[in-house]
Design brief:
heterodimer; A: 168 residues; alpha+beta; Ubiquitin-like (UB roll); DNA polymerase, domain 1; 6 helices; 15% strand; B: 288 residues; Uridine Diphospho-n-acetylenolpyruvylglucosamine Reductase, domain 2; Uridine Diphospho-n-acetylenolpyruvylglucosamine Reductase, domain 3; 3 domains; four-stranded antiparallel β-sheet; 12 helices; 14 strands; 27% strand
Chain lengths: 168, 288
């Protein structure tokens, strides 16, 4: 068996943001690079590339995960949602809106990952306390400004999703 | 960062994975959630020629009660352990541990079997499972065998499993009425890994401590039992003074290695503090 056979590329089928894709990937391809380079969905960022910073966070079968630490082949058959799949046309997801209203970003590099983490948090815990928000954000690093406005943004989104009349 | 090139095979049953493991020998490596293995491969600390994916095997994920045991499938993710009603009811100390591993995204992907089989000396599950006197069920082509946790972790990143065995289940005895379990850790501020941690299982009967198992992480190549502490707790009424005195013996036989974050003396000291916290929390839960 030659090395080429042995390390043969693998066919996968994934649904990303509701669209089914058939692709062929080298086994060592990380999910984040598959999304960015093969599907050209560059909203998901590579930060530390060592599963610390969370910039690469996407949803895999409804759970927030770090796509730099998952092989694309492991996502075969999975449903993936990236930051590009969050808004409904021109209408922002409440978490995206919250980040705009409460100044939850500065340079924006970490933002897609943090937004995906926050959406997963609010899907599993619609009314988190500050402590629960901080616990959920442990896997996301922001190096601009700290986390106060990020927490405010998530609370704003939680209030809006809970039907409260949120201030602007 | 990319891993070195490798071949990938998805297994669809434990039997198929065992055949693949035999076929690839030392050059094959089992992949569960991949949250220890993939980072190691990206750093080229590990370069297996073939990955055998267990994630495609149905039936290895889930938590159930079987007689006097809580049985956790090896592919159960940390988030499922942390949020399981069965775990929280019978073994809240196990939920404590699952809830402080890595971060939310890691808990959504990492598996209990992967953590146990990887046997990282700075991991959480090996410590709490040692306190809880768990058994590890492994399967090979010749059948199943069950290993007690005290004999399972043999060295740094090394277990008593043979190369042709696959971990399939973690069986944790459901403690008797009047028991409490707890796990606490001092995480490294950057990595979140254990600097020192402690797990405790305390059983109280007629107001006195009938049995105690205390395990400490971070002091050696794997979890260590704080035997002197356990002995000192037994037969007492678990007053604050008793717990304090017993906890000071938690690192008695330990010889931790110094690293850039913590000296050996500091680790020994923290072990006594965290042992006390774990015992106090377990005793509170035992009291209901």
């Amino acid at each position: 068996m030659t090395a080429e056979d042995e390390y043969a590329a693998v066919p996968i089928r994934v649904t990303v943001n509701g669209v089914s894709h058939d692709a062929v990937v080298e086994p060592r391809t990380l999910l984040v690079y598959f999304l960015r380079e093969q599907l050209e969905l560059t909203g998901t960022h590579v930060g530390c590339d060592t599963s610390q910073c969370g910039a690469c966070t996407v949803h895999l079968n409804g759970r927030a995960v770090k796509s730099c630490t998952i092989l694309a082949v492991q996502a075969d058959g999975a449903e993936i949602k990236t930051i590009e799949g969050l808004a409904n046309g021109d209408i922002f997801h409440p978490v995206q809106e919250g980040f705009r209203e409460k100044h939850g970003l500065q340079c924006g590099y970490c933002t897609p990952g943090i937004v995906m983490t926050a959406v997963h948090l609010l899907e599993t815990n619609p009314h988190p306390t500050d402590e629960e928000i901080k616990h959920a954000l442990e896997g996301n690093l922001c190096r601009c400004t700290g986390y106060i406005n990020i927490i405010e943004s998530i609370k704003w989104a939680a209030a809006k999703m809970g039907g409260e009349n949120v201030s602007r | 960062m990319f891993p070195a090139s490798f071949g990938y095979v998805a297994a669809h049953s434990v039997d198929e994975a065992l055949v693949l493991l035999e076929k690839h020998g030392d050059e094959g490596k089992l992949l569960a959630g991949g949250h220890s293995l993939i980072p190691a491969m990206k750093l080229r600390l590990s370069s297996p020629r073939t990955l055998i994916d267990l994630g495609t095997i149905p039936g290895l994920r889930g938590i159930r009660v079987d007689g006097d045991n809580l049985v956790i499938g090896a592919l159960t993710i940390h988030a499922d352990v942390a949020s399981s009603d069965l775990v929280r009811k019978h073994l809240p100390g196990l939920a404590d541990a699952a809830n402080v591993i890595g971060d939310m995204q890691v808990r959504n992907r990492g598996t209990i079997g992967g953590s146990v089989a990887h046997a990282d000396p700075a991991a959480d599950f090996p410590v709490v499972l040692t306190a809880l006197n768990a058994s590890l069920v492994v399967q090979s082509s010749t059948g199943n065998r069950s290993l007690g946790v005290d004999e399972f972790f043999t060295d740094f990143f090394t277990t008593a499993m043979a190369a042709n065995e696959i971990l399939t289940e973690i069986r944790v005895p459901i403690p008797a009425a009047g028991s409490g379990t707890a796990y606490v850790k001092l995480p490294h501020p950057a990595s979140g890994y254990v600097v020192v941690s402690a797990g405790a299982l305390i059983t109280v009967s007629s107001g006195s401590c009938a049995s105690a198992r205390i395990a400490i992480g971070g002091l050696g190549s794997g979890p260590i039992r704080a035997v002197a502490t356990e002995t000192e707790l037994k037969g007492t009424s678990l007053t604050m003074q008793v717990i304090n005195a017993a906890a000071t013996k938690a690192a008695e036989n330990a010889d931790p290695t110094e690293d850039s974050y913590a000296s050996a003396d500091y680790k020994r000291h923290v072990a006594t503090v965290y042992a006390r916290k774990a015992i106090e929390a377990a005793a509170r839960r035992a009291a209901g």
